[in-house]
Amino acid sequence: MIETQLHMWLVFGFIAVAMYAFASDRIELEISAVAVIAGLLLLFYFYPLVDKQGNDLLSARDILAGLADPALITVLSLLVVGQGIVRTGALEKPIRQLVTLRRHHPIMAIALVLTIVMVISAFMNNTPVVVIFIPLMTALAERMHRSTSTLMIPLSYASILGGMTTLIGSSTNLLVSASATQAGHAPIGFFDFSVPGIVLAVAGLLYAMLVVPRLLPNRDAVTDGSAPISGKQFIVQIEISPDSPLVGERAVAGQFPSLRNITIRFIQREEKLLLPPFDDLVLRPCDSVVFAGTRKSLTDAFADNPEILHDFLENDDQSDSEPNDKQNTRDQTLAEVVVAPASRMIGRALHQISFHYQTGCVVLGIQRRSRMIRTSRMTDIRLEAGDVLLLLGKRQEIMELRNNPDVLLLEWSTRELPALALSLRARLIFGAVILSAATGFVPIVVAAVAGATAMVVSGCLNIHQASRSIDRRIFLLIWAALGLGAAMQATGGASYLAHQALSLLDGAGPAVVLSIFFLLVALFTNVLSNNATAVLFTPVAISIGTELGVDPMIFVFAVIFAANCSFATPMGYQTNLLVMGPGHYKFMDYFKAGAPLVILLWLVFSIFAPLYYGLL
């Protein structure tokens, strides 16, 4: 008994050190997680935990079992599925159409966007959801002449709130389910905790929409909103092919709908030169359109109308024998290169250097930093040292430019274009994963792994893109947390903490204990990570429920909700860190906005949960 207690206190020491290491910026999270696993292996190898019969209660296999835990595999697989959605832009067009319905009511549009974020986050990993919506919220802020700092934290909060409504809404939920199953309980169903989760999510969303923007400062960076307007523009030339989506497009107020936020310099039509304004002008096949646009406006135009890229590819491939099809526009990357000093390209026009033949990349536009380019056609511009070329090509072709002495690749500028031609395929796979898991047709881990495999096999992702979607920080942190959870369960640490907590609340009813327990977990999740908090407190929750003689799953669900209350610190949840840059936030901004939200959800849960679960 004394030896068991010593093991338990050693594990508590490991947990304390791990909590400090995970919350500290001095040590890389990956190093901390691996060190925790290594420490547990060494401890229980040299000082094993055995029962009266001499059986090893916590072997190396038990400590390392988290690597094959279905919850971890499910989380990693869902990250791949989510990356497939982002890579194909499967959600961008529907989202833009929904927001366009409210374009004359920006405040309603913000409420609509946050609601959509919450709903999508119930069925998809929160991180890619926030990545998709950050540009959209930035555009809405500009339209409303508001600071982006008033909208980014509400975006993160909406995704976290949506994640607490279904089993796959957050990796936290899956880990709690895994820990409960490890302790001998039945797996949690897809919608088992959705009712109280929706109540908490709606209350939190109203707070995020109505109160949080008033608490956040009006803080904009110097470059916000000014770079796209005052920045340098690329000169672009496009030859309209007979099957181009631009054929038949009519100018409205001097602008073509597919080329929004882009300045049309002129249009060459046979021997005629058409100059602005272009009211009611209709584009025809073989028109040569020369226009100027920023990197952002060009990227937006290509994302909205990927078929436009065919015109660039076809015009550059006229001398090639390979057929052109939609495959050419897949896996395409935009990048910028600078014409190097002493480059062989200096003094020569684009049609003279055969750039596409030599590199496989297409020149979309030219930018001259020193002055505005004035010329009749982009192909007539003679290159100078320092000119910036906007290129389109496959990632491998772009990366090979590192060794090209004629240009200097600006690697920070590389960005993959969404493969919108595959968006329907990605939506079907994503829908099949959700439907299979929600109906119980197959276990969640089977649906997730099959969905991730389908994303790669169908071409929505390649192996490189799929592997990049797996965040090693999440992987190692979950692994370490599962190892600590197994150690705490085997040494009796969970039962000890539960007994001590109940002794402090001697005489209190289950409703009071549940409320205090929720608040305790919510506090820990903001200083530790949500995943580690969930795994460490699930065994404690089961023990408390058993001691009180009530259904332990009520306390397990409390862990799910409280561990998702990662609102008061930027390191509490990954989406909080994602919006920190775009929103120009400081640490105290999260505390001002998030601490009241934690208290609000605690009060709502303390009132609703006892009524819903019959604890009064």
Describe, in plain words, how this protein is organized in 3D.
- There is one protein chain.
- α23 (510-527) runs antiparallel to α24.
- The protein contains 28 helices and 8 strands.
- The chain starts with a helix and ends with a helix.
- The chain is α+β, with helices and mostly antiparallel strands and 616 residues long.
- An 8-stranded antiparallel beta sheet has the order 3-2-4-1-6-7-5-8.
- β2 and β3 (272-274) form a beta hairpin.
- The longest helix has 27 residues, at 587-613.
Strand content: 5-15%
Shape: elongated
Mean pLDDT: 81
Oligomer: single chain
Instruction: Give the biggest sheet.
Output: 8 strands, antiparallel
Q: Could you list the spans in which at least 5 consecutive residues all have pLDDT below 50?
A: 221-230, 318-327
With strands numbered from the N-terminus, the spatial order across the biggest sheet is 3-2-4-1-6-7-5-8
Structural class, by secondary structure, is alpha+beta
Which bin fits the share of residues in helices? 55-70%
Count the DSSP helices.
28
Q: Quote the distance from N terminus to C terminus.
A: 38 Å
Spatial extent as radius of gyration: 28 Å
Number of DSSP strand runs: 8
Brief summary:
By secondary structure, this protein is α+β, with helices and mostly antiparallel strands. The chain is built from 28 helices and eight strands. The longest helix has 27 residues, at 587-613.
